[in-house]
Design brief:
CATH architecture of the largest domain: 3-Layer(aba) Sandwich
Order of helices and strands: EHEHEEEHEHEHHEEEEEHEEEEEH
Mean pLDDT: 86
Radius of gyration: 23 Å
Largest sheet: 5 strands, parallel
Number of helices: 8
Structural class: alpha/beta
CATH superfamily of the largest domain: Response regulator
Distance between the termini: 35 Å
Low-confidence stretches: none
Number of domains: 2
Helix content: 25-40%
Shape: elongated
CATH class of the largest domain: Alpha Beta
Number of strands: 17
Strand content: 25-35%
Length: 253
């Protein structure tokens, strides 16, 4: 089986080659390429049965290769990114391995390749929309802190320390892990676009809650859910009916 490795860390590329040959000594590494630019040029004139792409290369993301070159071979991405951030591109011919690569995980990925693409089976093509979503997730920088004013003083509140945000009388409040409330100069809609959607969910028009804010979830009337928040007697933290299914999917990530 002919394999191309696209990896800009020489030690990582050599280790991957060694692991592949230990699993299957019939594997032939055609080349080890260290950049988006060189990979695009190589793929314009060559083919491989299986491709290994590191996601973040020195001159860009390997997704850029797929935007400019038609790639029909199945791909296994290697990445140091957390698995939740890369679920978006586990589609069609695509699989992924987290670094440092576990030999058993690599072996399973190769088994999947043989099951799906043996006998020269062709891929169904790569879902570029899913890849675009993944690229956005990996490159978008979420807000890390908010500036708040306390009397004559200015301080910051780390997003990781926020339990939930809520709107009241046309103002937006933060409630933090110390059960302190602060006013911020953003609407909930603006905040929703700035913070990590894997960590916060807009349960209704009034509340944007983090996973750590949830103490309990109780079935409520009209197929809704009521959220019991830590250190809070708020009674209107209700997951609206139209958001219940999305909320459950968010919990199950």
């Amino acid at each position: 089986m002919k394999v191309l490795i696209v990896e800009d860390e020489k030690m990582a590329a050599n280790r991957l080659e060694k692991l592949l040959l230990a699993i299957d000594d019939s594997i032939h590494i055609l080349e080890k390429i260290d950049s988006v630019k060189r990979a695009k040029k190589w793929l314009e004139n060559n083919e491989a049965a299986l491709l290994f792409f590191d996601i973040q290369l020195a001159d860009g993301l390997s997704f850029e290769i797929l935007e400019q070159v038609e790639v029909k071979s199945p791909i296994i991405f290697t990445t140091a990114f957390d698995e939740y951030a890369i679920k978006a591109f586990k589609v069609n011919s695509i699989d992924y391995l987290l670094k440092p690569i576990d030999p058993k995980e690599l072996e399973r990925a190769l088994e999947k390749y043989h099951e799906r693409f043996a006998d020269n089976k062709q891929t169904n093509g790569i879902d570029m929309a899913a890849l675009a979503t993944a690229m956005n997730q990996l490159t978008k920088k979420h807000k890390e802190r908010f500036v708040v004013k306390i009397g004559e003083h200015i301080k910051t509140v780390e997003v990781k320390d926020i339990r939930y945000l809520f709107s009241q009388e046309k103002m937006t409040f933060i409630n933090d892990i110390h059960n302190k409330k602060f006013i911020i100069d953003f609407t909930l809609e603006q905040v929703q676009d700035l913070i990590d959607p894997d960590q916060f969910f807009r349960i209704n028009r009034k509340y944007l809650v983090s996973m750590q804010a949830i103490k309990d979830i109780v079935s409520y009337s009209n197929s809704r859910l009521r959220i019991i928040l830590h250190d809070s007697d708020e009674m209107d933290a209700i997951v609206s009916r139209e958001r219940v299914q999305d909320f459950k999917r968010w919990l199950d990530r």
